[in-house]
Design a protein that fits this description.
With 655 residues, the chain is α/β, with parallel strands linked by helices. The chain is built from 23 helices and 28 strands. Helix 2 packs antiparallel against helix 3. The longest helix has 22 residues, at 300-321.
Length: 655
């Protein structure tokens, strides 16, 4: 696309209009419903969005109105966002699994007049909180199942809104054209709320400039094309989904595929076979865990063949992927492995057609990262945040490593402050935090530099950025040595048996840890070993499980001890929690980040027991069930000591 052509495309609706003309016959969206894939071309999407926008005008949607979008990834909800933009309104996606209290805060804070809901469940949540959020005037829903007996005086089916828009085209078309033509680069494109790890979520105002420039730079960086396919399955309220499924999709013109449900995601992924894919480390870890579980259950011959060819893949796969020299013999062995093992495995995972794949959000285990690259999957890492319209750094092809997050993305400047905090500025840098000038001023300075809150450094020679931890979480042990919890927690989470971990020790003489087991991986092990269990709690307290977790903790301690700067972060004592940390209980954000301070306050008795040297402790914890009911979980937890290592001895052993 020429710069001149791009110059006039200052909004997402403008990009849609261009796509309808230039790539109008290409598939823009697919959605699986009732087991059948439905498709829409860019020309058809343009007509759907226009009908919706006219319908919104008929409902009285004004310039500057905030429109809540709540539900799973569906074309109709993406179109609703673009239709709202077309009439000068501002879409505000909300996490579909948010409980009523979280939803109240966002709806109240932005003053939403309209709520576009995916189904009855989301409608019920909005109705439940409407008395506390008087600004909501209209609810629109996509799926009409279960909605027949509701009061429809301030509620409409989305299809009826579209029909009304088409019927009223002559009346509202001139007004729609005026409003769409008014949109500039400086108009707000979307408002996305942060995950709120340290307090109330903040409304991040992102302009058309932020989204389109970030989408342009990142699309060109990875040479994305109109023929690419993505699977839209991550929360619509997350900035990554917005930049991939709206920003890049509308800039590049590629196809957005929406799965039928979270339960069918892996099946739908295999059917689509995306060429461009993003997943947080947890998804890649889960995929690999499932592969390993299947291999454990496979016959001896199949297992032997898998192990043999995976050894070849680990040896030469990444080098072949990066175009580096590999002997003819090794290439031949790898080609045979592709035929017998790698190809069928990638097909089973739905990753056969991948050209570019990214992971971000947390550190991914080196072994997990290299596993996918050894199969020939171009998996890379990026570093970003909501306030940056995602992209701060990316890994260029040929410079992919498991221990860095790459180099500054095109158009992004990055610097490291004296205290080690990472700062950036770019065309994607957010406008402001909505109704929060104090936080805006403390995060973004007058020159546009944004404080990320992360500590990191640039490697000499390569220019690659390495992230150590959240700057606020980096502290000091009692002896003055560095305390960096994320570094150790990520090492623990590299083990398939461990789902989550939380390290404590700032200002103390030693570190202790909470651990969550991965029920899928540990449950499979229990079944193979004929170990009966009736609940997560029972399995988490099983002596053999505790022994396995202890071996993982001690293996991590041996690794941490080799790092002179962080050797003080070895875990002296630990416990396996009796429940999974859960967003519904406030212990995690909706993007699965631990709310460290809340966990520390909620389980203060358990932390005290770890430091007091107790062998066990009885505890009662309030939990929230899926239907919103509260309950109390009672448990007696075993507290264990872990072996720690002398730094010099550990380094010598490693050498």
């Amino acid at each position: 696309m020429s710069t001149a052509t791009q110059g006039a495309l200052h909004s997402i609706p403008a990009l849609l209009a261009r796509n309808a003309v230039q790539v109008g016959t290409l598939t823009a969206y697919r959605e699986k419903e009732f087991g059948i894939w439905q498709s829409w071309t860019w020309k058809e999407v343009d007509a759907e969005v226009r009908a919706l926008a006219l319908g919104f005008l008929a409902l009285g949607m004004e310039r500057g109105d905030y429109v809540a979008i709540i539900g799973r990834n569906r074309p109709a909800l993406y179109w609703s966002m673009v239709a709202a933009q077309s009439v000068g309104a501002i879409p505000v996606p909300i996490y579909q699994d948010a409980v009523a209290e979280e939803m109240v805060y966002v709806l109240e804070h932005c003053g939403a007049r309209f709520a576009i809901c995916g189904d009855q469940e989301q409608v019920d949540k909005v109705i439940e909180v409407r008395a506390r959020v008087p600004s909501i005037e209209q609810i629109v829903y996509v799926d009409k199942r279960g909605m027949r007996k509701y009061d429809h005086s301030r509620m409409n089916w989305l299809e009826d809104v579209k029909s009304e828009g088409r019927a009223a085209q002559q009346r509202f078309q001139p007004e729609l054209e005026r409003r769409t033509a008014e949109l500039t680069y400086d108009h707000t494109c979307v408002m996305l709320y942060t995950s709120g790890t340290t307090g109330k979520p903040k409304g991040v105002v992102l302009s058309n400039r932020n989204i389109i420039e970030a989408a342009k730079a990142s699309s060109e960086f990875d040479r994305l094309k109109p023929t690419d396919d993505i699977v839209a399955y991550l929360p619509m309220a997350w900035v990554g989904d917005f930049i991939f499924a709206i920003g890049q999709a509308y800039y590049t013109g590629f196809c957005v595929n929406c799965p039928e449900s979270a339960a069918t995601m892996m099946t739908d992924l295999r059917e689509i076979g995306p060429t461009y894919f993003f997943a947080p480390p947890r998804i890649f870890e889960t995929m690999l865990t499932q592969v390993m579980i299947r291999m454990e259950d496979a016959g001896r011959t199949k297992k032997r063949m898998f192990d043999k060819y995976m050894a070849i893949a680990r040896k030469v796969g990444p080098a072949i992927l990066d175009g580096k020299p590999v002997s003819a013999v090794d290439r031949a062995k790898y080609a045979l492995g592709e035929l017998l093992v790698y190809g069928p495995l990638k097909n089973t995972l739905g990753l056969s057609r991948i050209r570019v794949a990214y992971t971000a959000g947390e550190a991914i285990g080196p072994e997990i990262f290299e596993f996918y690259r050894s199969l020939g999957i171009n998996l890379k890492q990026l570093y970003g945040q909501t306030e940056a319209s995602v992209f701060i750094t990316q890994q260029p092809d040929g410079e992919v490593r498991n221990d860095t997050v790459g180099v500054p993305s095109p158009g992004v400047e990055v610097k490291i402050a004296e205290n080690g905090e990472v700062f950036y500025r770019s065309p994607g840098t957010f406008v402001e935090y909505y109704k929060n000038p104090e936080s805006t001023a403390s995060t973004k300075d007058a020159e546009g530099w944004v404080a990320t809150g992360d500590a990191g450094f640039f490697e000499e020679g390569t220019g690659h950025l390495r992230i150590i931890d959240r700057a606020k979480d980096v502290g000091k042990m009692a002896d003055g040595s560095m305390f960096a919890p994320k570094y150790v927690e990520n090492k623990l989470k590299f083990f398939p048996n461990i789902l989550e971990s939380v390290l404590f020790g700032n200002g103390r003489d030693r570190c202790v840890a909470f651990i969550n087991i991965d029920l899928s991986a540990v449950g499979n092990w229990a079944e193979r070993n004929n170990i009966a269990y009736s609940s997560y709690q029972e399995l988490a307290g099983h002596p053999q499980v505790l022994a396995a977790i202890q071996s993982h903790v001690e293996e991590v301690n041996a690794s941490v001890a080799q790092d002179k700067m962080l050797s003080g972060c070895q875990i002296h004592r630990f416990l396996v929690l009796h429940k999974e940390l859960d967003a519904d209980d406030g212990e995690m954000t909706r993007t699965r980040k631990v709310r460290r301070r809340i966990v520390e306050e909620k389980f203060a008795d358990l932390i005290a027991a770890l430091y007091d040297g107790k062998d066990s402790i009885y505890t009662e914890t309030e939990v929230t069930y899926e239907d919103g009911r509260k309950g109390v979980l009672k448990a007696t937890l075993e507290l264990r000591d872990a072996k720690v290592f002398n730094t010099d001895a550990a380094r010598m052993a490693a050498e």
